[in-house]
Specification:
There is one protein chain. The chain has 133 residues and is mainly β. The protein has a single domain, classed as OB fold (Dihydrolipoamide Acetyltransferase, E2P) (Beta Barrel). The protein contains 1 helix and 10 strands. A 5-stranded antiparallel sheet has the order 3-2-1-4-10, with no helix packed on it. The longest helix is centred in the last third of the chain and has 7 residues.
């Protein structure tokens, strides 16, 4: 699981749905949450989680997509197994892992050193807890 250290920058709620916005290394991320049991406040530092299997990679920005979150990243390391590939990408100060089908990764032509975009849905991002976690 990937951990991202971020700051809550906004919260919108309607009935049981909340959209929580975060500042992560100067990029805006957001998550959609149902029935948030824990209350967070703007300015609070939190640890976000995202499963490695929920991170998609692309050489294009795909600005016309419904995928809410994207980060410009550099491919640091690729490890291939029989069916899957682990791709470690670096942000300004952090790193993320994307686990993708080996054949799909080969089709993209993504290789170590490439500048690419990491994408993940708002519904796949979650709060682990405060930054002290």
């Amino acid at each position: 699981m990937n951990k991202l250290f971020a700051t809550v920058s906004g919260i919108e709620s309607s009935k049981s749905l909340s959209l929580v916005y975060f500042d992560f290394e100067g990029s805006e991320l957001f998550m959609a949450a149902l029935d948030m049991s824990q209350k967070f406040v703007v300015g609070e530092k939190v640890v976000l989680g995202i499963k490695s299997t929920a991170v998609a990679l692309s050489k294009a920005t795909n600005s016309n997509t419904t995928v809410a979150n994207s980060l410009a990243v550099e491919v640091d390391k690729i490890t291939h197994a029989k069916l899957l590939s682990s791709v470690i990408v670096k942000t300004k100060e952090s790193s993320l892992e994307a686990i993708v089908p080996k054949q799909t990764l080969k089709r993209t032509g993504i290789k170590e050193g490439d500048l690419v975009f990491a994408f993940f849905l708002a519904s796949e991002l979650f709060i682990i807890g405060s930054e002290s976690v």
